[in-house]
Write a structure and sequence with these properties.
The complex is a heterodimer of chains A (about 150) and B (about 500). By secondary structure, chain A is mainly α. Chain A is about 65% helix and about 10% strand. Chain A has a 3-stranded antiparallel sheet. Chain B is of the alpha+beta class and about 500 residues long. Chain B has 15 helices and 12 strands. In chain B, helix 2 packs antiparallel against helix 3 and helix 13 crosses helix 15.
Chain lengths: ~150, ~500
């Protein structure tokens, strides 16, 4: 039962995290950009080479990883799903946290918008919590050859 | 984590000779427990143990399987987290001798969840890929490009403006904004947390911008001037919002407390003032996309100011095979008064505007006489800088009307030879030289500042920046100037700013 609740929390976390990546992350004047539109500006941060592409691939890979977690869970490979969710939550949560602590530049023309990072961070925390719950839930083990349960 | 008990379907009837639900699995007869209702270990893998079954064993006496059919069972036939009836208890599921009725609910739900997850994931991943792809945001036609610029301006979207600008112009701006802000922070002009990406102190707003599509001027296949006939752009600057250090704010006195200043550009009024000529926003084609261009817009304004037209044909760029050859070429052509040759050696991406407007410049400047000087030898030291290579003079030999002059650099010392005379100047001698030239009236602080800057210039050397475009090398005047400016800034120390502020009072 505990594992089921962990899974529910985990799935809510995954979905929240993915939704968070599509919410505003950067404010420039009165225009806001989601995390992927921010990635499109990676050239401004000097990341228009290989590293920029790697970062882009990892971040865009957030959604497929979330899907993989759900699919693994649905086919009952729950530990794999939980491990994947753990990796997912760690990456998304770290980025969300880093962006969130940089936020709040009210007077600036360009600044971090807190909505996206905070929602992503919250989702990642839920995802990690769910994954840990699933991994640590008491599971019934197989009956040993000796017959003991 | 628990398995949804019994929700995954039943164990299918087995057709093995023993009537057991065997899947090649381990089997054990529970010892000491009478078989009442039959506890059985379903078999999945491994060895078999216990009494061989000799007759058909109806499934209802067995242990009900809770996992989805076809899904590999783990362990010794006992599912992970599954529910297991106690020994002797009638298992859940079906009873009696009827063949089990397959329940596919779990399978269907699993399939639906997986398909929905995959569909949603694909949709959002494609969207994410598209959003993150546009490093430079060009437009498919000139008017959209100009509109995007003004739209970005109107919403104060600095990143949108930078990203929408012609790529070479945006890169120029980015490269030197960061370096300049970094130096300004080191010199304690800006606060340490000032971020070039988070410019503050300026608010830009536009409203009611309208283009006259019919009046758009197509200069050639690469350049179109879009005419703005209505609307306003308002720029509000607030000194208090600039992240200046406290000492700068104090030095500025009342100026730092002044109210925000606002300037408005009314396009309709400008059109009226310019005798019906609307302001043009120039757009250029780079690759297959159109971008607004600041340089071309300025050039267009300058041409309009003098009632001149864009030339039908510009100068073709003529790059050199190496950075050194480009620097040498520019110097030779400049000495020869060959303006066209100099313009052709400018980077076509950054300075293409000068090549496009080149014939007009040549007409206006007229014939430039040969200086009479001839380049005999040029040796340079190359250093990688942002966007290209900086070439500083190591040895320069000129022939000026039959008289030979030579400048050589050795570390931070320069030696000049001309007319049989030799003069040597090193970085540590600058202070004395300044004192000699400036006299005793010059404050010591000013002498120190000038000496430091001069020494830095001698150490770093003065040169030009060459950039590579499509395999050819060109000399970039803006990058060269910016590097010199940065060299001067690097020569300063925070205390120099204090002294300069005192002198300014």
């Amino acid at each position: 039962m505990r594992g089921t609740w962990g899974a529910v929390v985990g799935v809510v976390g995954l979905v929240t995290t993915v939704v968070g990546t599509f919410l505003p992350w950067l404010r420039s004047g009165s225009v806001t950009r989601d995390s992927y539109e921010v990635l499109a500006l990676r050239g401004f941060a000097g990341l228009d080479g290989t590293w920029g592409e790697v970062i882009r691939a990892v971040w865009v890979g957030i959604t497929p990883v979330a899907v993989v977690c759900v699919v693994l869970w649905s086919v009952r490979l729950r530990r794999f799903a939980a491990f994947s969710a753990l990796v997912f939550g760690t990456i998304a949560g770290t980025v969300g946290a880093l962006a969130a602590v940089q936020g709040g530049n009210e007077g600036a023309l360009v600044g971090i918008s807190l909505t996206g990072p905070v929602v992503t961070l919250g989702g990642a925390v839920l995802g990690i919590a769910g994954a840990i719950t699933v991994l640590t839930a008491k599971t019934r083990t197989a009956i040993s050859p000796g017959g003991a349960p | 984590m628990s398995h949804p008990g019994g929700g995954g379907g039943e164990w299918p009837p087995q057709n093995n000779p023993y009537g057991q639900p065997q899947q090649g699995g381990w089997q054990q007869q529970p010892q000491g427990n009478p078989q009442q209702g039959g506890y059985q270990q379903p078999q999945q893998g491994g060895y078999q143990q216990g009494y061989p079954q000799t007759g058909p064993q109806p499934q209802q006496q067995g242990f009900p399987q809770t996992g989805p059919q076809g899904f590999p069972q783990q362990g010794y036939g006992q599912q992970f987290g599954g529910q297991q009836p106690p020994y002797g208890q009638q298992p859940f599921g079906y009873a009696g001798g009827e063949p089990p009725k397959k329940k596919r609910t779990g399978l269907v739900v699993t399939a639906i969840v997986a398909v929905l997850a995959l569909a949603a994931g694909t949709f959002f991943t494609v969207r994410a890929l598209r959003s993150s792809d546009s490093v430079a945001a060009g437009s498919e036609n000139p008017q959209t490009a100009a509109n995007n610029l003004l739209s970005a301006l109107g919403s104060g979207d600095v990143l949108g403006i930078m990203n929408g600008l012609a790529p070479a112009e945006a890169k120029l701006s980015k490269d030197y904004t960061e370096a300049t802000v970094s130096e300004a922070k080191r010199l304690e002009i800006l606060k340490p947390d000032a971020d070039p990406q988070k410019i503050s102190g300026v608010t830009i707003k536009s409203e009611g911008i309208k283009f006259d599509e019919a009046a758009a001027e197509k200069v050639n296949d690469r350049i179109t001037i879009n005419k703005v006939v209505e609307g306003r752009i308002t720029v509000t600057s607030d000194v208090k919002q600039i992240p200046l250090t406290d000492k700068l704010v104090q030095a500025m006195g009342s100026k730092a407390d002044q109210a925000p200043e606002t300037e408005t550009l009314d396009f309709a009024k400008e059109k009226a003032d310019r005798k019906g000529k609307p302001i043009g926003i120039a757009t250029i084609k780079v690759g297959d996309e159109w971008y607004p261009s600041l340089f071309y817009t300025l050039a267009n304004a300058a041409l309009e100011e003098d009632d001149l037209k864009w030339p039908a044909q510009g100068f073709a760029p003529a790059g050199a095979d190496s950075a050194e050859a480009a620097a040498k070429g520019v110097l030779e052509k400049a000495l020869a008064g060959d303006i066209k040759g100099v313009i052709a050696l400018l980077p076509p991406d950054e300075m293409g505007v000068l090549q496009d407007v080149g014939p007009v410049i040549l007409d206006k400047v007229g014939r430039v006489p040969n200086t009479g000087a001839k380049l005999i030898e040029l040796e340079t030291d190359a250093k990688d800088v942002e966007g290209g290579k900086q070439l500083t003079v190591r040895k320069l030999v000129l022939d000026v009307k039959g008289s030979k002059g030579e400048i050589t650099r050795d570390g931070d010392c320069y030696t000049a030879k001309a007319d049989g005379q030799t003069q040597r100047l090193c970085a540590d001698e600058i202070a004395d030289l300044v004192k000699q030239q400036g006299g005793r009236k010059m404050p010591q602080a000013a002498v120190d500042v000038i000496a430091r800057i001069g020494a830095q210039v001698l150490k770093d050397g003065v040169g030009v920046v060459a950039t590579e475009v499509d395999g050819k090398w060109y000399v970039s005047p803006i990058r060269s100037y910016s590097e010199i400016f940065l060299t001067l800034m690097r020569g300063l120390e925070p205390k120099d700013i204090d002294e300069l502020l005192k002198l300014a009072k």
